[in-house]
Amino acid sequence: xxxxxxxxxxxxxxxERQIIIDQIxxxxxxxxxxxxxxxxxxxxxxxxxxxxxxxxxxxxxxxxSSDFKDLDVTQRLLKDGTMILxxxxxxxxxxxxxxxxxxxxxxxxENELNRITNVVLEAFELLRSTRKVFISYRRAESxxxxxxxxxxxxxxxxxxxxxxxxxxxGEPFQDELWHRMTDCDVIVLLNTPGFLESHWCKxxxxxxxxxxxxIVQLVWPNHxxxxxDKSSYISYxxxxxxxxxxxKELDSKGRFIEAMVERVLTEVESVRARNLAARQDNLVxxxxxxxxxxxxxxxxxxxxxxxxxxxxxxxxxxxPTIGIxxxxxxxxxxxxxxxxxxxEVSIRLIYxxxxxxxxxxxxxxWLNDNFRKDIKTLKKQDFELWLQKA
Length: 390
Prior knowledge:
Blueprint: E1 5-11, H1 15-30, E2 38-42, H2 46-49, E3 56-61, H3 71-80, E4 83-88, H4 92-95, E5 106-107, H5 113-123, E6 132-136, H6 139-155, E7 159-161, H7 163-166, H8 173-182, E8 186-191, H9 199-210, E9 214-219, E10 235-239, H10 258-293, E11 299-300, E12 306-309, E13 315-320, H11 327-340, E14 346-351, H12 358-370, E15 375-379, H13 383-387
Parallel strand pairs: 1-2, 1-3, 3-4, 4-5, 6-7, 6-8, 8-9, 9-10, 13-14, 14-15
Antiparallel strand pairs: 11-12, 12-13
Helix pairs in contact: 1-5, 5-10
């Protein structure tokens, strides 16, 4: 591989260090990326193995006895602008050195394992830094749980869509709902007994399956999943019991016990990487099929991007973009351009424009016409036209 993402481990040599590294490797597998994509560098090897011109992220493992290690390396990385995530166990003030007092930290627990892993993947632009979740539910049956999960997910820095909280007055309701679903990472679906009796709830389920968006499906007690519920291969059902509800109340005002809320948060974090890989694969496969039909030779790189070398010596990088392309997508494209070693290259952020609102599509077209010439967006409905060009 031409480059590696560098994960630097600092601080105490605790068992959690290897647990996190192993979980990162699991998530790389879920993303269908090679394990060697991330190079793990202990502080003791920093002089020999660390490369300042390649992406880096560091984990600092605290010490409950305040016996802080690797402070010189930590200060060097901070001066280099490397992001460092402190991990503590009892209290931040006691477990983490003062040199990291201004860094956001995470208290380690098994429930936080996926969250820590995803922070690393987000830092390396392997997962979107925008963490978007869509809650699908039937108001008459599960409003209490929906609001509870909305608040819990928001507290974990997710951008959560809930129809009663997320659509501004004056916006076309259904257009905005489909738009926000298209741009989410995971759907939390509250599958109550009457969920599929609602026309719009049934539409939301079908739309999620068509878009291959990962669904964390919470199935109410004494309610069996029907065949239509199983139609999405990226649906992850959790069968609930009455004990998962506070005071066993199952009506629209009922709420989950805290342990169930924690389980949902953990599952949402876990599903993100698997969902991203499925949607990327779908977009890449469709683009390659159309390219092959038009006798254009595109190559899939280990980094999950496509490259094309034109007869005139020009190079094009196609980057599959999940959801709606943002300015951060362009920043990520710049990183990939540099790491691929290309000097003269144009970049196309390819994306599925189905259900994205017209005002956003017009905005993206305006950006294409008025800003950078080397990075542009390319929507799925224009794949054929673009690839037909000589």
